[in-house]
Design goal:
mainly alpha, 3 helices, membrane, transmembrane helix, DUF202 domain-containing protein
Length: about 100
Amino acid sequence: MEKKSTHILNASSNLLGFSLIIITSLKITKISGNTHLDEFAGIACLLFSCSCFFSFMAIRTKNGKRESKYETIADYLFLIALFCIVLAVLIMTVKIID
């Protein structure tokens, strides 16, 4: 099985920055008051952070079984966070169109 931990770490850290930009732009434009955008982006930030942590732990551990477990956890957290970002982007798009 190919190790995905480095790819997960890279993508999670980049999308963590994207999520923080979403939250910052919502606070600056004061759009977050009547939507759930900041909640989805905040949850995504937490999940991307945890995904970064577990992928880093998978890279650093010497135990093969533990490495696989950490990588799987990081992978699922990344997928859930990505879903939250997609929802936030969809809500933002609908809000801009209205």
